[in-house]
Write a structure and sequence with these properties.
Layout lengths: L6 E4 L1 E3 L7 H4 L12 E5 L1 E2 L2 E2 L1 E2 L9 H8 L16 E8 L5 E3 L3 H7 L7 E8 L4 E6 L5 H9 L3 H4 E5 L5 E4 L5 E2 L4 E8 L5 E4 L15 H7 L16 E6 L3 E16 L5 E14 L2 E6 L3 E4 L4 E16 L1
Length: about 325
């Protein structure tokens, strides 16, 4: 059986119409697409898999790799899932994303045959004045919500939030949301690609077509309460960004040397969001730079990280 050494992953790319070029120009992403809206950095999803770039399993998709090293390498917290539990992306929103909502597990498993989607965003960078929509400004009724969609006035009742670098948004399934133009984020989410589009700014694609909306389903799954207040992200070398029943996400800022610990409960994903460094393990090392995605199989071990860098560390809860 191949060893449990950490590996680097290369992403699947998506060129959705709202994407930009910053993942190529600033995050060292190499691909032939003119624009890169998303890179799926930790993905075993059928719509786009990450691929191992080094070690014994070089060239394998994340799904093949997990089969090769055994499912135990996902950790005991993943035993309750039928699928790989997380999906981690970088997202470069040059234009506005549609206003959308994701279903819960129970709704999605019944209607879509996959998990629902709770997600979180860490803002890597944004343009001056960039903003996004996060839930409603107040409690609304289903009728108000439905009428606002019909009349093209949905954004009047949505909570528009100005963003800055380092902000964190936790988005439970059912939260109506939209990433705004000029925002670059790292997204950690349940492994699901089910999105119900509610409003798309009446945009047309290059062939003059509107993208489909999914209003009926969205009405069934949306949370109609006022959105919660957002806490400020604390400073610090090791900061908890989000913890929920699905994942725990921390931001590590390394200035010299630090230790990352793995255990049997979960694999560890390290997304390099700034700087560069080296991860040292028992019999080798991996050097990394901004934009790299590292995967450490579940095991009882400690790893030394040296360098000047910022990492987003995700584990399965
Ligand atoms: Zn979303």
């Amino acid at each position: 059986m191949p060893n449990l050494n950490p590996v680097k992953l290369s992403p699947a790319f998506k060129d959705y119409l709202w994407g930009g070029v910053r993942l190529k120009s600033e995050f060292n992403k190499q691909c032939d697409l003119d624009r890169v809206a998303e890179s799926w950095e930790l993905s075993a999803h059928k719509d786009g898999q990450s691929v191992v770039t080094d070690g014994d399993c070089k060239g394998m998709t994340l799904t093949e790799y997990v089969e090769a090293i055994s499912r135990d390498a996902l950790g005991t917290n993943s035993a309750k899932y039928d699928y790989f539990p997380l999906l981690i992306k970088l997202i470069d929103a040059k234009g506005d994303l549609s206003v959308q909502v994701h279903p819960s597990d129970s709704y999605a498993l019944e209607h879509e045959g996959e998990y629902g989607k709770t997600e979180m965003w860490y803002v890597l960078d944004c343009d001056e004045g960039a903003a996004l929509y996060y839930g409603f400004t107040r409690d609304v009724t289903r009728e108000e919500y439905e009428n606002a969609i019909k009349e093209g006035k949905l954004t009047d009742i949505l909570n528009r939030v100005d963003v800055k670098r380092g902000d964190v948004f936790f988005i439970p399934s059912g939260t109506v949301h939209a990433i705004g133009a000029g925002i670059l984020i790292c997204e950690i989410q349940q492994n699901s690609n089910t999105t119900y589009r509610v409003y798309d700014y009446n945009r047309r694609d290059k062939d003059g077509n509107l993208r489909p909306l999914h209003v009926a389903k969205a009405l069934e799954v949306s949370c109609l309460q006022k959105s919660p207040d957002l806490p400020a992200t604390p400073d610090g070398a090791d900061v908890l960004l989000a913890a929920c029943e699905y994942f725990e996400v921390r931001r590590l800022r390394v200035n010299g040397e630090t230790t990352v610990t793995a255990d049997e409960s979960s694999f560890v994903s390290l997304m390099v969001t700034d700087g560069e460094g080296t991860l040292t393990y028992a019999d080798g090392e991996l050097s990394f730079t901004k934009g790299d995605s590292l995967f450490i199989p579940a095991q009882n071990a400690a790893f030394t990280i040296t360098g000047q860098c910022e990492l987003i560390q995700s584990k399965v809860n």
